[in-house]
## 1
Amino acid sequence: MRQQRGSSVDGASSEVSDGARRSAGDRDRFAQRLFTSLPSRYDSLGKLLSLGQDRRWRSAMVDHIVPARPRIMLDVACGPAGVTLELADRTDARIVGLDLTEPMLRQGVANVHRAGRDDRIGLVLGRGQQLPFPDATFDALTFTYLLRYVDDPQQTLGELARVVAPGGVAASLEFFVPPDRFWRFWWWGYTRLVLPIGGWLTGGRGWFTVGRFLGPNISGHYRRYPLPWLIAAWKLAGFEHVGVRLMSLGGGLVMWGTRREDDGAPSSGAEQPSPTSGPTSGATTDATGDR
Ligand SMILES: C[S@@+](CC[C@H](N)C(=O)[O-])C[C@H]1O[C@@H](n2cnc3c(N)ncnc32)[C@H](O)[C@@H]1O
């Protein structure tokens, strides 16, 4: 397998390049350990454990990219390339998928090859916090389930914004905590009991570990970075027209925004938005729950 330094986006081929191995910190190592045993059955078990919702959520995120008709785009935390392949199906863009965990990317290489998309998709080993690309390289960007795995989400958002050209679009997908108390009760039971046990029964130890980790991790993440904080963080990073949509009664969160034209220097993370800024502080909200 060809190894390259990770900064080139030319010659989109489904090979893993070496952009990250040396600088992985503790959080990165944790994520790598967590995801290393998952790749081969990631998509099928992910679907099962999300009660079939994940595909719908991905699709809702990609809906925000398609109208922009990107020519070249980046999919961060691409894992085995499920989102990357949907982007290839629904746009004409050349797509770079980037992920921290080599086994996930290797599964991505196989999936891209099987789908016959090697001509338009290239996969790169790298960190979302430190992208191996020049400023404004891409005219669209997606990232999925990333911010819970980084030390400084504001810094990471700034880094993601840096590589998007002014006027380019970004969209993300994450789990969320249902805001409604009734549904949060059931979500809590599902994430604390069904996920670990179902993970164990269907995928063995690796999936048990992920199943046990996910619920508390999601709750803790949003205690620290509630939705108003996130919306403000996107804006501080250099995005405007920031919108949010809660999915499946609040179990999923799709966000999107447009890279501002007016400044070329997104926040490096030195500033932090206030967690108390109002949830709608200028954001488009589409938070009516399940659809
Ligand atoms: C839940 S998987 C999502 C995979 C894929 N996007 C999907 O939706 O099917 C999360 C991915 O994030 C990757 N990841 C975690 N921390 C990362 C980081 N700092 N930079 C890049 N990728 C990271 C993991 O290796 C893993 O493949």
Note: The first strand starts at residue 72 and ends at 76.
## 2
Amino acid sequence: MAPTGTDAETGMKAVEAGAYRAAMAGVASAVHLVTTDGPGGRAGFTASAVCSVSDAPPTLLVCVNRSSSAFAAVAQNAALCVSTLSAGQGEIAASFGGGTPQEARFASGRWYELATGAPALEGALTAFDCRIVRRTEVGSHNVLFCEVVALAEAGAGDALVYADRRYHSIPVGMVPAAQDAA
Ligand SMILES: Cc1cc2nc3c(=O)[nH]c(=O)nc-3n(C[C@H](O)[C@H](O)[C@H](O)COP(=O)(O)O)c2cc1C
């Protein structure tokens, strides 16, 4: 048997979790609210672990910690919405980022629905309304593959970014629109 912290197949040592987290703190990422509603109830959390998988069909992946207060609802519901936050939305990101009871999180912000019934946040840069099509467990998190069934109209404004364990804003919209690659 491989020694603790060593990969059984390769014999390579795993990186220590704290060192991994410190390295990830230096990686700048977009900030999203992941929200859900359905038989498991309404819930949501702030997420940076969201990325595009494919455009055919349009698919995102979302990683959710199984110990988070939103997990039971996410596990039972069939849909979620990813609202990508704009620069002025740091306060709601902090509220959904842990410690606040689920229903209190939804007291701030204005919400609407696209196709699935999952709440989308007004004023977000964009929102991806999704059906959860596949789920898998990796470490402490579940990875959700989410097919995008509706999009919000793109909002305007600077983007909210998380880096070095704090929020920053960066200007967007500097590239002329409608310049599709040939
Ligand atoms: C900027 C930021 C990004 C986060 N990204 C994720 C993520 O991708 N997945 C996740 O499960 N939790 C993420 N979290 C943590 C959850 O938002 C939060 O811890 C979660 O709501 C658990 O707290 P709770 O149990 O009080 O709800 C992030 C938090 C912050 C502040």
Note: The longest strand covers residues 126-138.
